[in-house]
Structures are given as structure tokens and as C-alpha cells.
Amino acid sequence: MSDDELLGGSRDNGGTAELISRYMKLVFAAARRYSRGADYEELVSDGMQALLCAISCYDKEKGSFAAFAQTCIANRLKNTVDRSAKRAARLADADEIKDMEDRSPSPEELVIAQENTEEFRRGMETELTQMERRCLEGVIMGLSYAEIAEKTGEDRKSVDNAIARARAKLRRRFPQT
Length: 177
Hints:
By secondary structure, the protein is an all-alpha fold. Helices cover 79% and strands 0% of the residues.
């Protein structure tokens, strides 16, 4: 029987099994051809799925079944190789991440940083006036002097002077070591 006869209605009567046995060698050959880029068994599995799809989707008005099956199998295996390469790249990236030095702070460093932050906050409350504190908080939040002036209702020069005074006071209280 020809491929067209097997596909033409006798798919349910063993036609599919006969087509699979005829085109299995094509699947194995294609899998060998692409096996440098992916796992051979995965390629064979995907090739067989492509063959089954070709059998169910074939339209005899668009060409021969052999050409259609070969195209379906080749396209599926190319996609499998691409997926495999992307997977390998992700695994390589994950290995690089594992090899990176852990630079996260230790629990002791976190406690010290928290204590320093709290001491700095207490210093701001005791050393700075309310306006200096509001202006410095604006700088810490990333606001421009004009935005701070708008929020506080002061002019830009007053904000600039308040921030300069606040920085000077905090430098005296917390000199760099």
C-alpha cells in the first residue's frame, strides 16, 4: 500500500502503525544528525511525536507525505536542540552563580548595621532642628532641593542652608573612622 492509501481512511485500521514502521528509520537518522546538540533519546521521542503529528495533520493536496513528514520531524528536532541549548546555558549560569562568593552580610554585621542606623537616627533627633531633619530626610529620599523646598514651604536657599548645617552637625557627632 502507498502512503496515501494508508493515510486515506485506513488510519484507524493499522495504517498509522504501518506508517510509523516505514518512517521510523527517518526519525532515527534525523535524531543522529541532531544529536550533537541534544540528548539522542529525547530527539527520538520528539521525532516520533512529530511523525504522529504529521500523520494526523497531513493534507495530500500540499505535497507528498514523505516530504511533509521529513519537514515536521526536522523542525521539531531543531526546536528540541534549541531548547536543549537554552537549558544548558541556564544551567551554566546557575553554576556560575553557585561559584560566586557570598557577599551577604553576616548576622553580626546586620546587627551592627542596625545599631549604627539607630544611633544615627537618635543623633538626628537630638542634634538637628525639625527643619534640618525634614530637609535631610528629603535628601535621603532622593528629592531635589527644589522639591524639598516645595514640600516644606521654605525657599530653596533656606533648604540649602539647613542641609549644610545638618551635615556639619552630623559630621561632628559621627566623624569618619
